[in-house]
Amino acid sequence: MDTETRIGVDVGGTFTDVALLTPEGRLVTAKVPSTDDQSVGVVRGIEKACDDAGVDPAEVDAFTHAMTVSVNALLEEDGATTALVTTEGFRDVLEIGRQARPDLYDVTADKPAPLVPRRRRFEVTERATVEGIQTEVDESEVRALVDDIRDAGAESVAVSLLHAYQHPENERVVADVLREELDAPVSSSHEVLAEFREFERTSTTAVDAYVTPAIDSYLGRLESRAADLGVPVPQIMQANGGIAPASTVREHAVTTTLSGPAAGVVGAAATAIDSGDDLTGLVTFDMGGTSSDVSLVRDGEVERTTDAEINGRPIKTPMVDVNTVGAGGGSVAWVDSGDALRVGPRSSGANPGPACYGRGGADPTVTDANVVLGYIGGSSALGGELSLDVDAARDALAGLADEAGLDDALAAARGVYRVANANMTRAIRAVTVERGHDPRRFGLVAFGGAGPMHAAALAESLDIETVVVPRACGVLSAYGLLAADQKHDSVRTLRRPLSGLDAGAVDAAYADLEADTLDDVADPADAAVRRAADLRYVGQSFELTVPVGEPFDAEAVEARFHEAHESAYGYRLDDPVELVNVRATAVVERDPLDVTYRGGGDARKDTREAFFDGAFRETPVYDRDGLDAGATVEGPAILEQHESTVVVPPAWGGTVGADGTLVLTGGGDGE
């Protein structure tokens, strides 16, 4: 049994979630409203969880954290004033991009504006090719740019020179001079992403520079508040699904994008991986207050990608492959110019929040619809803090009904519920059907404050027969923080035909990468390094990543690539295969979680009218934490807990596992 007291805190758009695990295996969860300065809400959450557990914050041995600081900076476009230094003639790479239009048939559609406008993009005379440095950079020219960068008001600087991924000598000189002369962080592309493709490398480096000051400032405040509590310096969840020391994250801020969703997927994998032997994998479904995140776990491994965009900006660092839609509990329902009912992406946020929060919010939201449908009752308390105002929810939906030409608040609530579900169903199809996976062979893991209310309805629409609701479903991202291993990634472009490849040269490149990743590990002796490679058929534009053994075996790697290509696209070719990138990931595994669950007590609370199959039905309401391990539940039923509510439709039933996980099976016509 683990002897540590661990605490994980995940900041969402509406709530800050906390999970605390004691050495005896007792899991305590808490949920508090998020705050404008996220560190304030984090401290409040820690204090609440520790108070509920009877633990002094100074007794906490490990503190792990996920936040939305970097992704918020990108979505709200309020990051640092950033400058870019690049090779002469390549000033407009960020502007040109890939010349792909956001909408193929809309000639007026605008691409997102570059994070760095042209007036803050500067050029230096230098040139490198894939063979080596042709023109060395002149330090005096770089120093001459310093005043221009200062005059531009730059708070951060990105440096991305041509072919610096292969030969970074000139870029090192530029970065060193700027770091010497400027009182501002400098992000260098060969340190951020040593990978070819000029636009994506420059974009990723610009994103790193754009979010670094916000991350550095936030972590400084958080560390100070944590020290005042006596809590350890936090480990930070990265987008790749692994944690890293705060000091490392400050140097690689771009790795924190989507850190919260990544933690949720890790938590889902940790709690639900053994829920069905006949399942191909798991679809993870996290519905929070602002958005819903969908991802896959296959063969026990969380799906990762290096081909992601946030707000139209490519980011090529490894991250958990998450598809996000603007449909959460706080998503606002509205009527568009064609009189169609829409849901999201605008959210009511934490304050004032949905109308039912009783904080002055008047906009109808998905949460208000769930209240009118009876899935959330007047006796419920969200997060154990907020009592619901049912009349306010009904009034908000009645106003929407008038605007949409619907009969009443109930009709509007049904419409909002269906539209929100349709949005989330499309997100699930995007990571399953559109990638060649049959969702019927997957289980659906539902979490987030609102996910378990919608999960069975989504499963029915996709013919999924198994829904897994972890015990800590309302705070599963926080729970995932307790389970996450430490991970550090490194990549290098090494474009070579696989046929006749010098395996020794490849192993030497891997040795360099492994040294880079181990530099970020506190105790390298505890780390295991995993190798991977990006490959493609000669002439293809994009690659597939496959695991690589040690020493490098070209034939084995080629066989894995053919299998991966056939799995992804349904066919394989006899064409020659090209190695493109080599990758290394250093992993320090944490002790597995040992959670005890007792349940017990009087689980049955009361009954209330809830809407199923076109009519209100008297539905039993249970205290989920009162259900014993092994207990069964038949639908219709509603299971309440502080952080979330589980809706079990009439055609479904569930069983409580030994760790408190609820596994629902069934399917039918639904609402």
List how many beta strands DSSP finds.
Answer: 37
In terms of per-residue confidence, which ranges show pLDDT below 50 for 5 or more consecutive residues? none
Q: Mean of the pLDDT scores?
A: 91
Tell me the number of helical segments per DSSP (H or I, 4 or more residues long): 16
What structural class do helix, strand and pairing data support?
Answer: alpha+beta
- What Rg do the Cα atoms give? 26 Å
Shape: globular
> β content, as a range?
25-35%
Organism: Haloferax chudinovii
Pfam families: Hydant_A_C (PF19278), Hydant_A_N (PF05378), Hydantoinase_A (PF01968)
Protein name: Hydantoinase/oxoprolinase family protein
Domain Hydantoinase/oxoprolinase N-terminal: 6-181
Question: Mind explaining what this structure looks like?
Answer:
The chain is an alpha+beta fold and 671 residues long. The strands form 10 sheets. Strands 13, 14, 15, 20, 25, 26, 33, 36 and 37 form a 9-stranded mixed β-sheet that branches. Strands 3-2-1-4-11-12 form a 6-stranded mixed β-sheet, with helices on both faces. A 4-stranded parallel β-sheet has the order 6-5-9-10, with helices on both faces. Helix 3 (93-96) links the parallel strand 5 and strand 6 (121-124). It is globular. InterPro entries: ACX-like_C, ATPase_NBD, Hydant_A_N, Hydantoinase_A, Oxoprolinase-like.
